[in-house]
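can u do me a favor
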């Protein structure tokens, strides 16, 4: 088992190194550089002599490419992703940290709720095949899941926010609220998160349910489940401990990939609700040609997906005895 973990860790370390290298190369292949773009934005209000200092600040110097690469790696080890010139002189880590907090709170919680509820509904639908969960709810959720996230978000915003006025239309909290550790602020944040989180849950619930239902149906036909029934075990124990545990593995693997969706901030949903997450930050970075911020966001998303998939590999190793036997 130790060799398996080391092999997987080595694979993800190589993948992380490749993503770091691409993150360094791609901005340097693009025409121009952040310093030139920033100089143009100020329309001649910055002295030409400052160009050299700006290039050095953004990591674009006349040094050889390999020297720039090692400097880039050194800064990464120190947790320095450079300066954002859309939010100049704020550091990229500070800007991303703020957006990441809101994204994890919104999309992270929504995806976890969708995964848990959808998987459990899939178990029940497969166990009671032909019932209303299997023949009614599953097709309805699959139908809703066929619509784009942003369409469901706009529909929820119009109906429950604009027409009925039950929920706020935009932002993460009200303009009159002072951020802090208070019940009033937490309640206001939760109220603002209901519509965007619900649109994510509704759009993804059907996929988790159908995936779990199909795998569960196949698992219920195996010899191990027949043996569990023959031993006289309680139906609930057979359903949860034997069938659901084995059927859960594909959904757990898919959950690792869903982290990319979480950290990209469910981009269009955040735009619809003007929610200050990483997806909204990415749009602002593209509009302002903020290369350091784009670079930092891509890096954080990539490393988070790799870390989540490594965690999923460890969870599958714990859930599936067959994996441990071949590890």
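np, heres the sequence
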């Amino acid at each position: 088992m130790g060799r398996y973990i080391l092999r997987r860790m080595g694979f993800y370390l190589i993948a992380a190194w490749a993503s770091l290298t691409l993150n360094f190369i791609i901005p340097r292949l693009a025409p121009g550089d952040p310093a030139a773009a920033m100089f143009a934005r100020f329309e001649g209000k910055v002295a030409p002599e400052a160009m050299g200092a700006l290039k050095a600040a953004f990591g674009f110097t006349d040094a050889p490419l390999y020297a720039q690469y090692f400097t880039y790696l050194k800064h990464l080890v120190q947790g320095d992703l450079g300066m954002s010139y859309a939010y100049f002189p704020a550091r990229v880590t500070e800007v991303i940290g703020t957006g990441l907090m809101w994204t994890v709170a919104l999309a992270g919680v929504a995806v976890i709720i969708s995964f848990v509820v959808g998987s459990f509904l899939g178990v029940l639908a497969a166990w009671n095949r032909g019932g209303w969960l299997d023949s009614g709810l599953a097709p309805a959720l699959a139908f809703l899941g066929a619509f784009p996230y942003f369409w469901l978000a706009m529909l929820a915003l119009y109906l429950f926010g604009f027409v009925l006025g039950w929920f706020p239309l935009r932002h993460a909290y009200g303009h009159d609220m002072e951020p802090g550790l208070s019940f009033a602020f937490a309640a206001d944040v939760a109220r603002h998160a209901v519509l965007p989180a619900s649109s994510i849950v509704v759009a993804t619930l059907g996929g988790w349910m159908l995936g779990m239902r199909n795998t569960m149906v196949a698992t219920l036909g195996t010899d191990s489940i027949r043996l569990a029934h023959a031993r006289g075990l309680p139906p609930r124990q057979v359903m949860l401990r034997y069938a659901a545990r084995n059927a859960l593995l594909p959904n757990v693997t898919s959950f690792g990939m869903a982290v990319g969706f979480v950290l990209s901030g469910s981009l269009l949903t955040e735009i619809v609700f003007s929610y200050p997450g990483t997806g909204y930050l990415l749009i602002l970075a593209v509009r302002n040609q903020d290369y350091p911020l784009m670079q930092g966001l891509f890096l954080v998303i990539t490393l988070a997906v790799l870390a989540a998939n490594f965690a999923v590999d460890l969870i599958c190793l714990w859930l599936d005895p067959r994996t441990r036997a071949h590890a």
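The chain has 14 helices and no strands. hope that helps!!
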